[in-house]
Amino acid sequence: MSELTGSLMEELIAREDVQEELAKVEKAAERVEEARREAAKLEMEMAEVEARQEAARQAERETVATSAVADAAADVLSAAATVRRAEEEMAELRRQLDGKGAGASGGGGQKWVTEGVDEDEQRIESAKAAAIAGAAGGLVALPAYAFGAGGLGPALLLGVGSDALTAALFGLTYRYALRRDVNNSMLQSGVVAAFALARASGALSVSLADGTGASGALSGTLEGLLVLFVAQRALDRAIGAGFVKPFPS
């Protein structure tokens, strides 16, 4: 039976029309395999193109973020210089007023209302306030930038550094503005609000630059408020614990 089956198969295969059909099937199989190889090659090329495009988009986003952070850092430094000049002008005005008062009374004037103020000690206290506020602001900003930047990189370092610098400047201004009126909630809120408005303006300019729109501006503003709130709380605790002394009158 098997011999008969084998003989029939040989005869069938030997037929010219069957051989033609088998040749067609073989060619069709080759074409299918070639199409699969071409499809795989095309898929790899598309993946490479997409990867290059994504890398270009990421580089562009980092460039925009780096530029925006650099601009923000420059604004913060400019604001710090402005605050310093204002402090110097106020001190000079106080000396002039005290001098006039002393001339009228025949006595010597003094720079501070509070007697026995050590200016070197006040510089140290201001440095401590800036360090505490800056560290608190930088730490609270770190997770947001690490998540958004996808790890360590220039965008992360510049972003956290900018927020830490803003918080440090806030700490200096906060201590100077409150002086010994450390429980004045309206004054506390006013200082935070002033810095928050400046941060909101910066967030809006960044969102317009990178195309994120209102959502980006809102996110940046909320992040800035959180940084300032944490910096304020840290500084309030430091002043309350006596680690940082209030600014004298």
Task: Outline the low-pLDDT stretches.
Answer: 103-109
Structural class: mainly alpha
Percentage of residues in helical conformation: over 70%
Largest pleated sheet: none
* Pattern of helices and strands: HHHHHH
User: What fraction strand?
Assistant: under 5%
- Taking the alpha carbons of the first and last residues, their distance comes to 118 Å
- Kindly provide the radius of gyration, computed on alpha-carbon positions and rounded to a whole number of angstroms: 36 Å
Using the alpha-carbon principal axes, give the shape.
rod-shaped
The number of strands is: 0
Total helical segments: 6
How many individual domains? 2
pLDDT average, as an integer?
72
SSE topology sketch:
Elements (H helix, E strand, L loop, with lengths): L1 H13 L1 H90 L13 H31 L4 H25 L6 H26 L2 H28 L9
What report would you give on this structure?
By secondary structure, the chain is mainly alpha-helical. It folds into two domains: 2-45; 60-240, no CATH class. The chain contains six helices and no strands. It is rod-shaped, with a radius of gyration of 36 Å. 21% of the residues are buried. The model is unreliable at 103-109 (pLDDT under 50).
